[in-house]
Specification:
The protein has 12 helices and 3 strands; from the N terminus they run ααβαααααααβααβα. By secondary structure, it is mainly alpha-helical.
């Protein structure tokens, strides 16, 4: 899919995303990327659930599987030491203990989605949808937690703009029936847009694009046909237009 998006846009694209990774994880990866690379643009895909809990942020960095295939780099050690993650995360990465004891180190570097689910069509089941959202979203949204991660996001915006990097913020497709089940999504959009407006960044809301049920492999993840339709209908034209303006 990365290669297909490069073909459609004519751009060189490096995917820095992490499954279930919120702004804390994204900021770390962005800073690490900038230690060795340059770019004209960064596409940030926004999911509201990642702004509501440490599970997708500080605690996500504690998942040692994230670093299982990362070669040793002092720059990453330094960033992990300065990150909100416990010092044990930086120590484990530096000594390589989890890599040595990783029983899956010889397994193909593919996710379950790629191996078995990417080509299937999901048949909506109300109970499954509700259980999925209960897993992603807290029972009650804590305003302080939300503002904390929104402030981190604003820091990422500033970092990008200080380096002359254009930030392209995108909300991905989601089935309408699922969108209706998400509590406080309108308030989230309003708060997010307020931050983006302060920095002159546009929100590209594609939640209603390529969101037919047949285009999903589960409650909220596009399947292969869905990704390709999203690319052709929305993401590729947006990136192509942005690149044209930069030349």
């Amino acid at each position: 899919m990365n290669g297909e998006l490069e073909r459609l846009t004519g751009a060189r694209i490096m995917n820095l995303s992490v499954v279930g990774g919120g702004i804390t994880v994204s900021s770390l990866l962005f800073e690490y990327f900038l230690s060795r690379h340059q770019t004209r643009s960064v596409v940030y895909v926004v999911d509201s659930f990642t702004f509501y809990s440490a599970d997708w942020n500080e605690r996500r960095l504690q998942d040692r599987r994230l670093f299982a295939r990362a070669p040793f780099d002092p720059a990453l050690v330094a960033l992990l030491v300065e990150s909100p993650a416990p010092r044990s995360v930086a120590f484990d990465y530096a000594v390589g203990f989890s890599k040595i004891n990783n029983r899956d180190r010889f397994a193909p570097d593919t996710s379950p989605d790629e191996r078995s689910r990417f080509d299937r069509q999901y048949r909506p089941v109300a109970q499954v949808d509700e259980e999925r959202l209960a897993y992603l979203y807290p029972a009650q949204i804590d305003t302080g937690t939300f503002q904390y991660y929104l402030t981190q996001f604003e820091g990422l915006i500033r970092t990008a703009q200080l380096r002359g990097i254009e930030l392209i913020v995108v909300k991905p497709p989601i089935p309408e029936r699922v969108h209706r089940l998400i509590r406080g999504e309108a308030q989230f959009d309003s708060a997010l847009k307020g931050v983006l407006d302060r920095h002159g960044v546009e929100l590209h809301d594609f939640s209603g694009v390529a969101n037919d049920d047949r285009l999903f492999q589960d409650t909220d993840h596009l399947n292969r046909a869905g990704v390709l339709e999203f690319y052709h209908a929305a993401l590729a034209p947006l990136l192509t237009r942005k690149l044209r303006h930069q030349r």
